[in-house]
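We emphasize that the prediction below concerns an isolated chain of 110 residues; any contacts that depend on oligomerization or on bound cofactors are therefore not represented. The input was used exactly as deposited, without trimming of termini.
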Amino acid sequence: MPSAQQYLAVIGQFAPLVILIVLFYFLMIRPQRKRDKAERDMRNSIEVGDEISTIGGFIGRVVNIKDDVLIIETSNDRTKLKIYRWAIRSKEAPATETVEAPKEADKNAK
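Result of the prediction step, given as a token string:
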């Protein structure tokens, strides 16, 4: 029958391995799962009219959603692209109209 010292020796050998596994989980696996969940929530919250950018670099406004396929308009000439939901990199705030700065001639006229 093994003695208490033998049990402590076995536990002492496996303790560093268990500590490494726990550290690996909290430093690597858990943060990655958190990022994946945030990304999945962002992709599922996309609605018609949202501005998005894709993994391939396209930027456009969503005009139609059907299951996991989105149709986006990418420019003023209304070019439409069909993309998968997983290909979305980020959801951007809708573009606001920009106000042009007054021209030099307008400044001098006043």
